Amino acid sequence: MIDYEYIFVTALHAELKKRVIGGIYINVVDDKLNVRIVREKDMGFNYDYIFDDTLSHMIINGTSAKNVARSVVNKYGEFVYNKCFK
């Protein structure tokens, strides 16, 4: 992992850890940011999110880890809501 990827992923993990209960796994494959949230006690609550935009493009445009975390938390909230209430 390149230095800027490591710094961004570490900051993103710290932001997500504040808001999400569960295992958070973040990796970068072919410059694509992959986020996986795992809730082992709750069956079927494994959430995967792959960003359409490349990580280098997000960093060049000035996207912060806090904004990315907010996006992931919003999508995860929709996922949980649909899983529980439908």
Question: Features of this protein?
Answer:
86 residues, alpha+beta, three-stranded antiparallel β-sheet, 3 strands, elongated
Oligomer: single chain
Q: In which range does the helix fraction lie? A: 40-55%
Overall outline: elongated
Radius of gyration, CA atoms, in whole angstroms:
13 Å
Number of strands: 3
**How far is the first residue's CA from the last residue's CA?**
39 Å
* Helix segment tally: 3
Major β-sheet strand ordering: 1-2-3
Q: Beta-sheet strand percentage?
A: 25-35%
Largest sheet: 3 strands, antiparallel
Q: Give the overall average pLDDT.
A: 90
Which residue ranges are poorly predicted, with pLDDT under 50 across at least 5 consecutive positions? Answer: none
Q: H/E series, N to C? A: HEEEHH
Q: Give me the secondary-structure category.
A: alpha+beta
Architecture overview:
This protein is of the alpha+beta class and 86 residues long. 51% of the residues lie in helices and 26% in strands. The chain is built from three helices and three strands, in the order αβββαα. The protein has helices spanning 3-19, 55-60, 65-85; strands at 23-29, 32-38, 47-54. A three-stranded antiparallel beta sheet has the order 1-2-3. Strand 1 and strand 2 form a beta hairpin. The protein is elongated.
